[in-house]
């Protein structure tokens, strides 16, 4: 398949991924994780669609909190993607996100055809994926809403199923065919799921779609007219550059509805292409064994684990040591500030645990100790009354904003690289083992003028140490307005 | 019972406690842990015997690695205990430790009577304990080697059992009687253990003993003559202040033998007092439920745990967050640098896990990130190539040695209290938010001249950051020889 000039990819990257806590956090959701391989899920997703779609045709729908992290992870394509981010003020389920993306694309290209796909799925078999897209594109051009159906491998009760109408074939390429949808089935019970598995004619709804923007918007007009009116208003506001509170308020009023329920199940133009690539939505820690390599006892093991005799257990850890003995069908996830232990059979309930953390105001539900920024990252090593200790890493050429704090002094000790430090009216370059004190209410800036990473230890002192005690005078990344 | 003028307590505090990893470490064994209550096990042990024995009659047998930590924990009695430490160069099982303590006590008091007890057991019922000691003392004066027998509550296969000869009563006080031992039984199989439990005439060997020093040494002469000769030589070396390598070499040659096997089971003077206090040797995480309070689902919970639905599970954690769901009969122990997860039924095998860690050279088997020193403590916040970050706490009036490092510079930032800092020829007092740089090969010292704790953050820089890169010029705690 040649790259189709009117094909665009819309990557849905607004998910919260609470079921991958503590590796995922509210502000660091699943698509940002390296689950398998050397790239994160969103990086893998973008790379996968690049074989069908030019990079500057890839759009990312996300929200403000995640946008910065996502842009960092996609920084290698930053020029091509620069204008392709659609930022929702808050998540309102899939239909509004997709409808808005369709309106945006239609302004760009009246023949725009959209491949919609979640950022946090794992797909293995890139050639097969590409072939499926090719057939889907053909069928979409005929005015259909194309879904991609996954051959079930077990009687899964957590997914919706799609039954094709085998007598209504809409297209064929090689061994792949596409059909009209006979019916959608919401998450079935075990007995039904077993029947579907046995019948061979029911497919998992992968949440991947392909359609012309104009087609899907016609269906919005037919089945979700109120939502479409709201989306058009939002689209107008975006077009005229209104991104403030009225925009957020308008968006908040949109009905929260899924594309499956709101459009696909209502439409008479729904189609399905049963595919042959391997797919997983890695919906929980328990599902990791489907996609990650296991040792001979069936354990998935990442990180610093010393284990005796465990079986069929998922260990997802980092540098901290986890010692384990005789675990069976368990999940153990370890991060610098939080550990999770549960049986695999309960891994769907991690979501409930995160709700409980949120209810208690536990900071561990929200962010990691390491926070990524456009200039690099920082890691909180310790916080206590009146002080905070961070390790700050600045990328070559990166620099933090020119800033000042009302309530805290800071001490910086360089541990690697060269720091160019502005403190008041003085600028100095400091190498490893050198230090400087930044008094309260003194303008300062940290910069890495070298070609190697810069690492410093920062010790903050003061009665208030919140990140919001910051006055920014100049910032390379346009952050002088908000903290 | 009045305090007996010739009664001494010998607290055996040399155990490694590997089965309580990761809370215990090779250099921070079980007796130093707060398992239940506000005091550590050794503090509770000392406080318990104080009702029967004057504090300056309490001796502690331990080794060099643990002595400093133990002295810190017993600091409130430091004057009374000052001369009462017996330091083994290495552990050689219980018989050498007890024999040596007997020789030392006999030099002090020819009528010395020794209550020997491990530092790391939990006993509940102090009055009952005191009554048992009183009867034991009476029986010991008649030339018997008294053991204290615990009424079994389950068919435990991990303990030795003692059968009293009910026809040979040696003494009686109130409801307590003591008897000659009919026989000792090594750890039985389950079937035997069930019989013993049912019979009501077998008692667990608590490892607590009472005898005249002269009596037990007569039994050493009879049953362990070679060991006794070795001990006498060691005792002579101690008396003449020889604590160097020859002393250690001599000690190392002593046979490693337990007091139970080496003396008690051989002697015709063994006696047993069945007691009615509650006792546990808390031999593993799984046994914690016997002594610690449980919630209504049977969980023992310490620390920052957010749990859904777990049952009969031991959570022993600290400040880090542990999230758990639906655990049954498990053990989860969390420390700043290491986490343990295992079923209760495997908690005896924590020992094997620690052996594996040791084999791999994992530092987590040896020490905690927080290390206690006579002047306070330090906590390693992070280590990386070329740097180390510590939080250092100095007690009021405490000061570190006057020292120098060949390979590293240090930066100190005060976060609480006042630091008196010697750096080269300069002495200065620094308050919170103040900092100082200590260059390589510069004499320096940190001191807390105030009445409040002093806390600083130390950032070390250099190619080698081992604790042994230290030259000590003066030290308040006599550590100018060894690091």
Give keywords.
homodimer, 483 residues, alpha+beta, Spore Coat Polysaccharide Biosynthesis Protein SpsA, Chain A, Jelly Rolls, 3 domains, six-stranded antiparallel sheet, globular, RmlC_Cupin_sf (chains A, B), nucleotide-binding (chains A, B), EC 2.7.7.13 (chains A, B), GTP-binding (chains A, B)
Largest interface: A-B, 56 and 57 residues
Shape of chain A: globular
CATH level 4 superfamily of the largest domain in chain A = Spore Coat Polysaccharide Biosynthesis Protein SpsA, Chain A
Beta-strand content of chain A: 25-35%
Class based on secondary structure composition and strand pairing of chain A: alpha+beta
Average pLDDT of chain A works out at: 94
Question: What is the number of helices of chain A?
Answer: 11
Under the CATH scheme, which architecture of the largest domain in chain A would be assigned?
Answer: Alpha-Beta Complex
Helical amount among residues of chain A, as a percent range?
10-25%
The CATH class name of the largest domain in chain A reads Alpha Beta
List the domain count of chain A as a whole number.
3
In what order do the strands lie side by side in the largest sheet of chain A?
A: 18-19-20-27-22-25
Number of strands of chain A: 28
Q: Low-confidence stretches of chain A at least 5 residues in length (pLDDT < 50)? A: none
**Radius of gyration from the alpha-carbon trace of chain A, in angstroms:** 25 Å
Distance between the termini of chain A: 46 Å
């Amino acid at each position: 398949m040649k790259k189709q000039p009117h094909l665009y990819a819309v990557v849905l990257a607004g998910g919260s991924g609470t079921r991958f806590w503590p590796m995922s956090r509210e502000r660091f959701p699943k698509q940002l994780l390296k689950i398998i391989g050397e790239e994160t899920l969103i990086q893998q997703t973008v790379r996968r669609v690049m074989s069908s779609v030019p990079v500057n045709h890839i759009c990312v729908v996300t929200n403000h909190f995640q946008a910065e992290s996502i842009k960092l992870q996609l920084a290698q394509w930053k020029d091509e993607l620069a204008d392709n981010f659609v930022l929702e003020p808050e998540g309102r389920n899939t239909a509004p996100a997709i409808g808005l993306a369709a309106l945006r694309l239609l302004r760009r290209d009246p023949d725009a055809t959209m491949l919609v796909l979640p950022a946090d799925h794992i797909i293995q078999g890139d050639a097969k994926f590409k072939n499926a897209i090719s057939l889907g594109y053909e069928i979409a051009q005929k005015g259909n809403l194309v879904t991609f159906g996954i051959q079930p491998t077990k009687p899964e009760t957590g997914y919706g199923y799609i039954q094709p109408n085998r007598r209504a074939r809409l297209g064929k390429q090689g061994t792949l065919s596409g059909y009209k949808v006979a019916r959608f089935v919401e998450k079935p019970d075990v007995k039904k799921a077993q029947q579907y598995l046995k019948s061979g004619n029911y497919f998992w709804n992968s949440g991947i779609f392909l359609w012309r923007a104009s087609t899907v918007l016609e269906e919005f007009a037919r089945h979700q007219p109120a939502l479409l009116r709201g989306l058009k208003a939002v689209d107008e506001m975006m077009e005229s550059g209104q991104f403030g509170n009225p925009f957020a308020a308008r968006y908040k009023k949109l009905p929260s509805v899924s594309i499956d329920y709101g459009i696909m199940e209502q439409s008479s133009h729904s189609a399905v292409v049963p595919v042959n690539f391997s797919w997983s939505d890695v919906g929980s820690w328990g599902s990791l064994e489907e996609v990650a390599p296991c040792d001979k006892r069936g354990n998935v093991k990442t990180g610093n684990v010393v284990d005796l005799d465990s079986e069929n257990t998922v260990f997802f850890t980092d540098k901290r040591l986890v010692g384990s003995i005789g675990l069976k069908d368990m999940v153990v996830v370890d991060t610098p500030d939080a550990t999770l232990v549960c049986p695999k059979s309960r891994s769907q309930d991690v979501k409930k645990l995160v709700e409980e953390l949120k209810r208690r105001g536990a900071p561990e539900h929200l962010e990691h100790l390491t926070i990524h920024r456009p200039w690099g990252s920082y890691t909180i090593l310790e916080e206590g009354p009146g002080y905070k200790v961070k390790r700050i890493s600045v990328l070559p050429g990166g620099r933090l904003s020119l800033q000042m704090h009302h309530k805290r002094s800071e001490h910086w000790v360089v541990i690697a690289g060269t720091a160019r430090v502005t403190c008041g009216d003085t600028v100095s370059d400091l190498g490893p083992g050198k230090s400087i004190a930044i008094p309260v209410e003194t303008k300062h800036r940290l910069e890495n003028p070298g070609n190697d990473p810069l690492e410093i230890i920062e010790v903050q002192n003061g009665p208030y140490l919140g990140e919001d005690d910051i006055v920014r005078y100049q910032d390379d990344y346009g952050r002088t307005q908000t903290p």
